[in-house]
Specification:
By secondary structure, the protein is α/β, with parallel strands linked by helices. It folds into two domains: 220 residues, Rossmann fold; 163 residues, Glycogen Phosphorylase B (Rossmann fold, 3-Layer(aba) Sandwich). 41% of the residues lie in helices and 16% in strands. It has 16 helices and 13 strands. Strands 3-2-1-4-5-6-7 form a seven-stranded parallel β-sheet, with helices on both faces. The protein has a six-stranded parallel β-sheet with strand order 10-9-8-11-12-13, sandwiched between helices.
Length: 395
């Protein structure tokens, strides 16, 4: 059984998730390849798509092919998107020998890297699409929040949504995988994916790296105070509105928490009125796992999210998560067991949840949190579910 995954990159949240699945399948004896446009790792089986010289020239020359036309439209109008994507690309991955020889093609995050119209018309093998956000069934937006706050682009949003819907509906041999029940419900309710079968299979991670460690030991390693509570916040881009760092800053400014903050990611959030250790981006997973273990709790204040890798990483390290009542967070966090869920998506709700945690932090069993998370998010657990799905589609 030959599986080819396609993702725009092997880095970033979705890229790392796709890479972890790919590695889990390899460990289970599956012939798996991860095809990407932007390759950043030297991992086995990760292949960069070889773009033609013409596509490279057009991309860098500013020649007004259709995608550039859309991008110019956005630049000419005021807009506020965390990310936006179009269903066209100057290259066509369906011409890749890897794609042509695959038994199953597993799509991941494909923003502006997939020519929908030709891909879904040409591909005859079963397609599995793992949804890392809402973009596959929206238009140019990746989450509803961006769609709703950019009402001036509704016409373009709807035009692209319908174009994608019609392109996807050319193909009947498509199965949708979501990371949590919330995304499954959103997808099933969409006009684009309502005709297709849906399955839930969460992301995984290396549980030999993201594991329980003694807090005092890792704190001494980083030169951190061994007695004061530490709250950690991490995101690839910490200042994105959807990720809620402004909510965290408001909480820190209006509550007198006797704690320190560890901040990881691109862009230092402003306005956190407390002692803060800003560490920038960290690619070393071993170091990252130790920092999770050093923290008393991980703060995940996202206004809207799917199943963030950061939550899985924190739980697998035995560190409780304090988050918002949405997405995969609300489905995986139990108050007083492995964290707290805010009652509302605002500073007051988050502040109350942090207060509840600080008042009860010594009651949490960090080893048990890690053990339970490993049972849900270990690579073998995810890989075996995918293998079962793949097998059902081709045999």
């Amino acid at each position: 059984m030959k599986i080819v995954h396609f993702c725009s990159s092997d880095n970033g949240g979705a890229g790392k998730a796709a890479l972890r699945l790919h590695k889990g399948l390899l460990q289970n004896g599956i012939d798996s390849t991860l095809l990407v446009i932007h390759k950043t790792t030297g991992e086995k089986g990760v292949v960069q798509y070889k773009r033609s010289l013409l596509s490279k020239v057009i991309t860098h020359s500013g020649i007004p092919y259709r995608q550039n036309k859309y991008n110019r439209f956005i630049k000419l109008h005021s807009c506020d998107y965390e990310c936006l994507s179009f269903p066209e690309a100057i290259y066509d991955i369906s011409d890749s020998r890897l794609i042509q020889e695959a038994d199953i093609i597993n799509l991941h995050w494909v923003g502006s890297c997939l020519n929908y119209k030709s891909f879904f018309r040409k591909i005859k093998q079963p397609i599995v699409w793992t949804l890392h956000d809402m973009n596959p069934f929206l238009g140019i937006a990746h989450y509803m929040g961006d769609k709703e706050k950019n009402t001036e682009h509704f016409e373009l949003e709807e035009k692209i949504r319908l174009l994608k819907r019609d392109a996807i509906h050319q193909n009947k041999n498509l199965t949708i995988v979501t990371l949590c029940d919330w995304m499954k419900r959103c997808s099933i309710l969409s006009e684009t994916f309502s005709p297709y079968e849906h399955y839930i299979n969460p992301n995984s991670l290396d549980t030999n790296i993201f594991k329980f460690r003694e807090k005092k030991e890792v704190r001494r390693e980083f030169g951190l105070n061994t007695d004061k509570p530490f709250l950690m916040f991490a995101s690839q881009y910490t200042t994105h509105f959807r990720k809620g760092s402004d909510i965290l800053a408001e909480v820190a400014s209006t509550n007198n928490f006797d704690c320190e903050f560890i901040i990881i990611g691109q862009g230092e959030p402003k306005g956190i009125n407390a002692k803060t250790h800003y560490l920038g981006s960290i690619q070393d997973e071993e170091k990252l796992a130790k920092l999770y273990a050093a923290a008393d709790a991980f703060i995940l204040p996202s206004r809207e999210d799917n199943l963030p890798n950061t939550m899985l990483e924190s739980l697998c390290c035995g560190t409780p998560v304090i988050s918002m009542p949405n997405g995969g967070m609300a489905e995986n966090i139990q108050d007083g067991v492995n964290g707290y869920i805010s009652k509302t998506i605002d500073a007051k709700g988050l502040g109350d949840a942090i207060t509840a945690f600080i008042d009860n932090k010594d009651r949490f069993n960090n080893k048990k949190i890690a053990v339970n998370a490993h049972k849900k998010f270990a690579p073998d657990v995810q890989a075996k579910k995918y293998i079962e799905l793949y097998t059902s589609l081709i045999y």
